[in-house]
Amino acid sequence: MMKAISVAEFGGPDVMKVAEIARPEPKEGEVLIKVFAAGVNPVDTYKRAGTYAKHLLPALPFTPGADGAGIVEALGAGVDSVAVGDRIWLSGSTTGTYAEFCVSKASDVHPLPASISFKQGGGIGTAYRTAYRSLFTRIPGGVKSGQVVLVHGASGGVGLAAIQLAKAQGCTVIGTAGTDEGLELVKSQGAQAISHKAENYMNEIKTMSPNGEGVDIILEMAAHVNLGKDLPLLKRGGTVVVIGNKGMTETNINARALMLTESSIVGVLGVGSPEEVKQVLAGINDGIKDGSIKPFAGPSFPLADAPASHVEVIEHKQGTTGKIILAIRDE
């Protein structure tokens, strides 16, 4: 038996209850993980609430969570890519990571060096996959050295991941944040920082760009607020990558701004095609090996406080500073 978060009905954060359930066992091609930390993502809240795409909602009851880090506990038949006792991070789980143990496909289990804590490792999956896709697979040809990248909400998990990936590629990065702590965190990653609470900050961003020419790439976490204001910041041929948009809010844009700069708007959702998945995971693991990827763990909650973590990941009452984590065990 093990402790896990169980969701027996769709609804608000309080439908998540700590329960004693049977420990899962790995089948062929699977790995059993002793989970030390789990990443908390907005998508987890949509699935818990039952507002996610209906065909992608899990069957009730279920344990949330796709991101995590821990130690390999047991191997299913045919698995030779990892060994019992290995430190790992997860890019997915078939049984949910909000638990003391989880099962994952062997292809979702990746080496975690001792230099990265389990809390840091628990926040790699969704954040770095989203950032990598935004910069390298959703933009034709990928971001290039010397380009200027604007990251909205840069002090959050995806934002920090994007800064690190863009800087490693040789880009100039400008990041926005809403608190002093967040701005300092953005600067610590090598980016220029500006408060999105400052008056006329969007105009200031263009001034901050090299020679005041604007930016090549914009990673947009709140398209419902910023998209119309993003377009005038783009250089010719630039791209806005939409990562977040609240609800079904309609966004008005001036399409002529797209014409004048021959720019593009693309969206990111999910993990992409099988070929993309291989490219993205290989790129992340390469970054972990060469040290360019340095995950930053933000607010941490014990397993019993999973409901509070879901409130925080949406409302950011503690400010947006790194990846929100469930600490399942002491490291």
Layout of SSEs?
Blueprint (H helix, E strand, L loop, with lengths): L1 E6 L8 E6 L8 E10 L2 H8 L18 E8 L11 E4 L10 E5 L3 E3 L6 H5 L2 H13 L10 E4 L5 H12 L3 E6 L2 H9 L3 E4 L5 H8 L6 E6 L2 H8 L3 E9 L12 H7 L2 E4 L6 H17 L6 E6 L3 H10 L7 E5 L4
Parallel strand pairs: 8-9, 8-11, 9-10, 11-12, 12-13, 14-15
Antiparallel strand pairs: 1-2, 3-4, 3-6, 3-15, 4-5, 5-7
Helix pairs in contact: 3-4, 3-9
What does this structure look like?
By secondary structure, the protein is of the alpha/beta class. The chain contains 10 helices and 15 strands. Helix 3 (125-137) crosses helix 4 (157-168). The longest helix has 17 residues, at 274-290. The radius of gyration is 20 Å and the shape is globular. The protein starts with a strand and ends with a strand.
Quaternary state of the chains: single chain
Radius of gyration: 20 Å
Structural category is alpha/beta
The helix count comes to: 10
Helical content band: 25-40%
Principal-axes shape call: globular
Order of helices and strands: EEEHEEEEHHEHEHEHEHEHEHEHE
Give the end-to-end Cα distance, rounded to a whole number of Å: 21 Å
Question: Using DSSP, what is the number of strands?
Answer: 15
Let me know the largest β-sheet: 7 strands, mixed
Strand content: 25-35%
